[in-house]
Specification:
Elements: H1 3-22, H2 90-97, H3 105-126, E1 146-148, H4 167-172, E2 195-197, E3 211-212, E4 215-216, H5 217-255, E5 274-275, E6 278-279, H6 280-289, H7 300-310, E7 345-347, E8 353-355, H8 356-364, H9 372-381, E9 411-412, E10 415-416, H10 417-426, H11 439-442, H12 444-449, H13 464-469, E11 489-490, E12 493-494, H14 495-504, H15 511-520, E13 547-548, E14 551-552, H16 553-562, H17 579-589, E15 619-620, E16 623-624, H18 625-633, H19 641-650, E17 673-678, E18 681-686, E19 692-697, E20 702-712, E21 715-720, E22 731-738, E23 746-754, E24 757-764, H20 773-781
Parallel strand pairs: 22-24
Antiparallel strand pairs: 1-2, 3-4, 5-6, 7-8, 9-10, 11-12, 13-14, 15-16, 17-18, 18-19, 19-20, 20-21, 21-22, 23-24
């Protein structure tokens, strides 16, 4: 038979199969005929109006051993619709998810068939169909080891539509594969191409990518996992908000002590009654709502029974084994009537502060026998004279029974020295003393603070009471046990004394000062975060030992380096308002470069103008004249310049008004003003018409002591001053005292012998002797108003 006849015969066979399969109504596989004894491939589903199928026989030749031969043809099925009956077959499922078993040559061919089918499906869906027949050019992937074959193993001739066929032939014959490529030619109908695989020396290797819904299965799993995680987080947040509070509420009910007067009670006998420092309503709120920490060994009874008894909750009895009354001589059945002063407030050694009646309430419900000694000491503080001192007590904070020098009310760690003394007499030495310290060691800081006459050596390390009570840390940062040089003198105190001061300090805002002092003592301390920095910046001090404002420049340098505006911060009166305002004048006085006095609206200049200070160390208004001049140079309020003019006069600055009289007469005081500085105030006195006696305070406030009334003998009187509350208006007087050693009139002192009544003394040169006594009275009249 010729090639063309064989090809025609093969194609006719294909067409026959198509016709036969198309007429089939179900998926029942065809039985092989008796002629060829070959099993027929399962029939594809029928084509609908929207899908077409071209199928070839899938024949497996079975030899006598039951093995399949490799002379196999395959059918490609293109169908977008499910099989009849609505149930997909295993083959459909494999096609949809792209999963194929490749374990035998037959499996390899099935994989190739499936891949070709998907390629055809893809091109069919993307191709643009003509009005009647959709034209496509599907691409079939070339797989190593597969060779093109044609029906009957014959090459197509040009006459039958192979290479070199005419257009006429193409119209009558199905389009075929190009022999030199594995791509279908342009055609009006999708045709199937069969492959056969030659017997390879070893099984071919093929890779199949599993897909599902057109997405690689691995990638789909990753996307699904991420999506599931996001959904879990969102749901966790939502349910966390909705569910967790309810769970917490249940836990809270389980871990709280319940109502103060017991479960089932809704009202308190007296909600506003104050017991143990809080109202009964507050105790009930805490008992009902506060959650008990699981590792807290304190029971609900320990927490709230005493408060419940004090709040008159029914059914609560005092334990028979409690510490009982604060006053040991009292009847245990009595209430607070045995206390000398039930409302007196006292502290115990643990720094808890309550009224004596509250202490007695706590004592009624204290069942720890070792704690009873504390209530015995508290009873002594409450005035129980019958309480006995403990035989193992220390017998007082001072050795040998001596009395401390400070007043009984002097406070150490916010506790009076009298209380510390009672602790040491009524508490045994073992109480609150886990370190087994001796009496001298245990009470050494209290003895030092209360000024016992004889002090034992101060312990270098902070003891039990110090660790429990101190506010500031050790002067050596990090708790160094040893100060580099305890005997070094810093700020007129030894470094060891500064450590003791820091132990007793109770104001936290002062703690940076002790840190700075520790640095001066050689400790490796660090400045606070807002420290102003070295006084002269990066330069060394020109004269470290020069004194400015009562301290050396070296000391000021430490303050500037270690302190800042946060030190002693206060809204009303901060210690350091700003670094510039606080340290600029000091830097200038210490010789630091690039520092200039205030200019423009601020700054009052030097006290004596162009003249130097006659005596820079002279004390005026509690400061040296050189310090006052420094303040004047850096004054920022021009309204204060009048005060500095007065300071200049008090410091002896040359004046245009020079007293040049040979002797003194009262008329020499007319229209003259004299000043005197005392403490933080300046007093000014003038005589004659418009004369006054006034007090100018350091904050700028002016109080008029009185207006000039005249002389009574040698005393000038002033009255009608500013109101002084219940004491009436202020008033004053100035005594004129002759002094042979005085060259010009000068006020020597001002005192206030009684509230808002002031007295001053004005020393003057020797009175003139040629005064006409007969005219003296007339002259005195000049000074009368």
């Amino acid at each position: 038979m010729k090639k063309s006849d064989e090809l025609t015969e093969g194609k006719s066979s294909i067409a026959a199969v198509n016709d036969k399969d198309t007429d089939e109504d179900d998926n029942t596989p065809k039985q092989p005929s008796n002629d060829d004894k070959k099993p027929a491939a399962a029939s594809p589903p029928p084509l609908t109006s929207s899908s077409k199928s071209t199928t070839t026989n899938h024949n497996n030749n079975i030899d006598n051993d039951g093995n399949e031969s490799h002379d196999t043809s395959f059918g490609l099925h293109i169908n977008d619709e499910p099989r009849r009956g609505g149930v997909k077959s295993d083959v459909d499922h494999g096609l949809e998810c792209g999963i194929s078993a490749i374990t035998t040559p037959h499996g390899i061919m099935e994989a190739m068939q499936n891949a070709n089918r998907r390629a055809l499906d893809y091109d069919r869906e993307r191709g643009e169909a003509p009005p009647a027949v959709q034209t496509r050019r599907p691409s079939i992937q070339s797989i190593p080891g597969a060779h093109r074959v044609y029906p009957s193993n014959r090459e197509p001739s040009p006459e039958s539509g192979g290479e070199g066929s005419t257009a006429n032939d193409i119209e009558q014959v199905q389009p075929t594969m190009n022999a030199h490529s594995q791509h279908l030619e342009q055609s009006d109908q999708v045709v199937a191409e069969a492959y056969t695989v030659e017997e390879p020396p070893s099984p071919p290797v093929a890779t199949v990518i599993d897909t599902c819904f057109g997405i690689e299965r691995k990638r789909l799993l990753i996307i699904a996992s991420v999506g599931l995680g996001v959904i879990s987080i969102v749901l966790g947040c939502v349910f966390g908000i909705i569910v967790v509070p309810s769970r917490n509420n249940r836990q809270q009910e389980e871990l709280t002590c319940g109502p103060l007067c017991g479960h089932g009670t809704t009202k308190l006998p007296n909600p506003n009654k104050k017991v143990l420092g809080a109202t009964c309503e507050s105790w009930d709120t805490n008992s009902t709502n506060l959650v008990i920490v699981s590792d807290d060994a304190t029971s609900c009874a320990d927490r709230y029974t005493a408060a419940a008894y004090g709040c008159d909750c029914p059914g609560i009895e005092i334990p028979s084994d409690s510490c009982g009354m604060l006053c040991s001589s009292s009847d245990s059945s009595s209430d607070t009537s045995s206390l000398p002063d039930p409302d007196r407030v006292v502290k115990d050694i643990h720094n808890q502060e309550l009224s004596c009646k509250d202490w007695q309430l706590k004592s009624h419900f204290e069942t720890d026998s070792q704690e009873c000694v504390n209530y015995n000491a508290v009873g002594a503080l409450c005035g129980c004279t019958g309480n006995e001192m403990h035989p193992d007590s220390c017998g007082g904070i001072c050795t040998n029974g001596q009395d401390f020098l400070h007043s009984p009310g002097h406070s150490i760690w916010n506790t009076a020295c009298r209380s510390w003394d009672i602790y040491s007499m009524y508490l045994p030495s073992w109480y609150n003393n886990d370190k087994n310290e001796t009496c001298e060691e245990y009470y050494s800081d209290a003895a030092y603070g209360c000024a016992c006459p004889v002090l034992s050596d101060i312990e270098p390390e902070c003891g039990t009471l110090c660790q429990q009570r101190r506010t500031c840390g050790p002067i050596c940062e990090g708790g160094e046990s040893e100060i580099p040089d305890p005997d070094l003198i810093v700020r007129r105190e030894t470094c060891q004394a500064w450590e003791l001061h820091s132990r007793l300090e109770v104001h936290e805002i002062v703690c940076p000062f002790y840190n700075m002092t520790g640095a001066q003592c050689g400790c490796k301390n660090k400045p606070v975060s807002d420290a102003c920095g070295p006084l002269c910046g990066g330069e060394s001090l020109p004269n470290p030992q020069k004194e400015v404002y009562g301290q050396t420049c070296e000391t000021w340098d430490y303050m500037s380096t270690y302190l800042g505006p946060s030190y002693g911060k206060s809204e009303q009166n901060p210690i350091i308002k700003s670094c510039e305002e606080h340290f600029s004048a000091i830097s200038y006085a210490c010789g630091c470069s690039d520092i200039e006095p205030s200019s423009g609206e601020g700054g009052c200049g030097t006290l004596c103008g162009v003249f130097p200070l006659p005596d820079p160390t002279k004390i005026v208004n509690a400061r040296t004249c050189q310090d006052l001049e420094l303040l004047s140079l850096f004054e920022t309020d021009s309204k204060q310049c009048t005060r500095y003019e007065i300071f200049g006069a008090l410091c002896g600055c040359p004046s245009a008004d020079v007293y040049e009289e040979d002797c003194f007469k009262l008329e020499h005081l007319q229209n003259k003003t004299y000043h005197f500085g005392a403490g933080g105030s300046i007093y000014s006195v003038s005589f004659g018409d418009g004369g006054y006696f006034a007090q100018l305070q350091s904050n700028g406030d002016l109080f008029m002591i009185g207006l000039f009334n005249g002389f009574d003998d040698d005393i000038a009187t002033y009255g009608g001053g500013a109101p002084c509350g219940l004491h009436g208006p202020r008033s004053g007087s100035v005594a004129i005292v002759e002094d042979d050693f005085i060259e010009s009139p000068e006020i020597k002192f001002v005192i206030e012998p009684s509230i808002c009544v002031y007295q001053a003394e004005l020393k003057v040169p020797k009175f003139c002797e040629d005064v006409d006594e007969s005219k003296a009275d007339d002259e005195d009249l000049i000074w009368q108003r």
